[in-house]
């Protein structure tokens, strides 16, 4: 892996609110022998603009993205949502500009973007990452990881290989949690109703921790679980995979939300 240049795309939500997730990705990848770099020029993946219909405003964001991540062999992100945006939306934005240079740059960069579980399973070829997490956990497959990327059972296979973990099946797992970025603001009542359904299903599993590959979904459902005084914590998959017997979660990422 030494010769492969790998970049971490941390995402805005993680950078602003959940920096421990980015640190967990670096801890995990370094443990697996990947010398991951962090291009400081990176900003947003442009998804908020695209999803809200501001395609012209997305153009400079996509330009910044391709410049920041030029020359890397792989771009790893702890977010199915942002990976989906880079892989599917950047091409739409670039082609719409009629700028052949930008379109070519995007065609070069987009296929190199991997959601964390895709990178671990498909590129590194590992399922057992040496993690230890002795808790009852339920996994929520986020919409974009499921539908835009098709990560399939990769996250589940990684979780099943974690020592000490007890995995509880989440009822109606494939239903959306209701966050949807700007949707949560524009259609708040619907968003809250969907989140409440998800929280109810999570509580029914008896899990101590709800895990997902996107902190945006965890923030939404986690907020509801916390207001319900449910006692259920939410954690990003990267933080569980980074946790080991020698460096348990607290030492790596400083506990829950």
Automatic annotation (TrEMBL):
Q: Which GO terms describe its molecular function?
A: oxidoreductase activity
Among Pfam families, the record links this protein to: CCG (PF02754)
Q: Please report the stretch or stretches of sequence annotated as the Cysteine-rich domain.
A: 6-83, 137-221
Cellular component terms per the entry's GO annotation: cytosol
Read off the InterPro entries from this record: Cys_rich_dom
Coiled-coil region(s) at which residues?
Answer: none
The record's PANTHER family line, in alphabetical order, gives: LACTATE UTILIZATION PROTEIN A, UNCHARACTERIZED PROTEIN YKGE
The protein in question is named: L-lactate dehydrogenase complex protein LldE
What species does this protein belong to? Nocardioides psychrotolerans
Upper classification of the source organism reads: Bacteria, Bacillati, Actinomycetota, Actinomycetes, Propionibacteriales
């Amino acid at each position: 892996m030494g010769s492969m240049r790998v970049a971490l795309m941390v995402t805005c939500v993680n950078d602003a609110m959940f920096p421990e997730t980015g640190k967990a990705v670096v801890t995990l990848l370094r443990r697996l022998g990947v010398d991951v770099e962090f291009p400081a020029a990176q900003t947003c993946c442009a998804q908020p603009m695209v999803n809200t219909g501001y395609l012209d405003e997305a153009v400079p964001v996509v330009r910044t993205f391709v410049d920041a991540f030029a020359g890397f062999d792989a771009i790893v992100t702890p977010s199915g949502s942002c990976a989906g945006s880079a892989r599917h939306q950047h091409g739409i934005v670039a082609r719409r500009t009629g700028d052949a240079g930008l379109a070519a740059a995007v065609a070069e960069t987009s296929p190199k973007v991997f959601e964390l579980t895709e990178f671990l399973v498909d590129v590194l070829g590992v399922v057992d990452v040496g993690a230890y997490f002795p808790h009852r956990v339920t996994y929520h497959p986020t919409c974009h990881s499921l539908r835009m990327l098709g990560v399939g059972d990769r996250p589940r296979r990684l979780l099943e290989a974690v020592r000490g973990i007890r995995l509880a099946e989440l009822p109606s797992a494939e239903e959306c949690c209701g966050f949807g970025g700007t949707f949560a603001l524009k259609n708040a009542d619907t968003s809250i109703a969907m989140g409440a359904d998800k929280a109810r299903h999570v509580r029914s599993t008896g899990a101590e921790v709800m895990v997902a590959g996107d902190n945006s979904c965890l923030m939404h459902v986690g907020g509801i679980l916390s207001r319900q005084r449910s006692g259920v914590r939410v954690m990003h998959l990267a933080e569980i995979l980074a946790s080991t017997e020698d460096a348990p979660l607290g030492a790596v990422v400083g506990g829950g939300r």
